[in-house]
Amino acid sequence: MTYLLPTISLKPSIPRMKINLETLRFIPLIAVAGMLTACAQLQITPAPGQNMVFQQGKACVIPLKQNGEKQGIGVIGAGSYEGGRAVFTVLFHNHTKSPINFGLENITATDAKGRPLRIYTPQEITRQIRTQAAIAAMAVGLSAGCQSFAASQPSYTTYSGSYNGYSNYNAYSAYGRPIGSLQGYQNGTVYGTATTYNPAQAAIANQAIQANTMNQMNMIGNNMQGQLGIANQMLATTTVPPNAQYVGIIIVKQSPVTNFKFSFAGQECTASFLEK
Asked: How far is CA 60 from the centre of its chain?
């Protein structure tokens, strides 16, 4: 019996959003961060001494130039992701007069000792999600096959019992003359096995197995769809027109200290976060 993972039509749950960085309207930025269900597992706070704004209790780092002008970047800690990884939401505002390509190639991350921290691409996360779903579906299919095989096998019953009785045996000579008789009691034990098969019972069992298998497959598919919804919101290279904004999430190897450096249009800026 073969079970296939259901085909799922994916639609991004949250569209790419435009945010007016000048007026500090970060509600959509907070909304993207709120997509993650594991936020409570990891507390991410900006390191002291940085320019920050708050929206609904969330702290967002906004790097400034030496003259106090905003550099077009906003970063907020969103929470944790499986596998010892942290999630951040990044907003980029193109203040220049020309389109700018902005993506993961514009971002580097290091720990407190300056060692590079891995930033995962959307393709890596998507591949991991699909692989995990395929493995889970394979395990469910194998389990269902084993259960169906067991349900289709005959039933074996072992039985045992005892016997006793009284017998009278007459003895004769070679010439047919009676020469006496033997009398006595006999007793003993009997045992054996019996094989039975109930097609109706096997069919009912297989129906229950198939229903349970489909339910598990649907759960795997729904979970994959939810995770891919997050992967679809990850930062990917995008051409941002002048005075336009782009928002995406990035997934980084977790570290007690995460230092970001953003490089674009000949500018550089940094943002630092503490994780616990």
From this structure: 28
